[in-house]
Amino acid sequence: MNTDEKNGEIPVYVFFGFMDSGKTTLAKETIFDNGFTDDFDRCLFISCEDGDVEMDPDELDKIGVDYVEIDDKDDFTLEKLQSLQDQYDPEAVFIEYNGTWESSLLYEMDGPADWVIVQSICTVDATTFEMYLKNMGTMIKEQMFRADVIIFNRCDDATPKAKFRANVKGLNRRAQIVYERKDGSIDNRPDELPFDINADELHITDADYALWFMDCMDNPKKYNGKTVDFLGLVYNPKEGKGKLHKGTFVAGRFAMTCCVQDIQYLGMPVRYDNAADIGHKSWIHLTAKVKNEFAREYRGKGPVLYPVSIEEAERPASQEEELVYFN
Questions:
Q1: 45, 158, 286, 292: least buried by Cβ within 10 Å?
Q2: In terms of Cα–Cα distance, which of 128, 121, 141 is closest to 20?
Q3: Whole-model pTM over 0.85
Q4: Helix H segments across the chain?
Q5: What percent of the chain has pLDDT over 90?
Q6: 96: how many CB neighbours lie within 10 A of its CB?
Q7: Are 179 and 186 in contact (CB under 8 A)?
């Protein structure tokens, strides 16, 4: 389905989330409390699963919203959606998507011709997120990867916000993240990091690397002028399409989000006159000053490392120890 909004096309709003994650409650608040349908004469709400909280078709009808259920994944087809378009002729569409269905079923659908996904929101129960990520990682990744906004609800003072954000950003860098407490209020407290951000020098351990990397990429001004040190794997091919510009190599680590299929290299550019002497795929202990500046690698501003010292390091003893994790 198209995701590029154009004049005259029908906006589609998608609600992702596992059952009991607060998905229907959010949809009801959006439609009823926020007056989201006031700008449209007629809308269509498509429900793809039954949860503890249900929509009332009669109440929806009072505000100009038609209600349809599609419980079977095999029925969620282009032909079905096109028939709903022809039958109800909505000006906007809301889809409460089934949390166990692949999001590609919706996003890779070629139509209906006038439907355009303009926003997708994923609700996540903060109390069960880590369990789902461990046991149903592929499913939760599917939803979070597509979402524009991810809402962690049922949060409290013990919610590991920094860990959650790192997990999300490892899958979906563009997503906006909202933390909602059990009473419905928004938790705007700063994310707690496992190192002292106020220190001038930050020792980044293997356990902290993924969290630090994501926070530094999202908030480079916070780290501008600070000194960091970490064990890094070098990316510095001498030839081919991946060859870097003179005076630059990349230092980083391979990180695993939730399973081996999600391993990705998290690295930052390092400006160093003798970069050509740093071996590709070598291991180093890097101490460097962070500068938030324009870099061609980012096509804009971002964190760039300037070495204070570079020391050769031994490769970790096992493949598992070579990886860093979002925890």
A1: 158
A2: 128
A3: no
A4: 23-28, 57-62, 78-88, 104-107, 129-135, 137-146, 161-171, 209-218, 220-223, 319-322
A5: 64
A6: 24
A7: yes
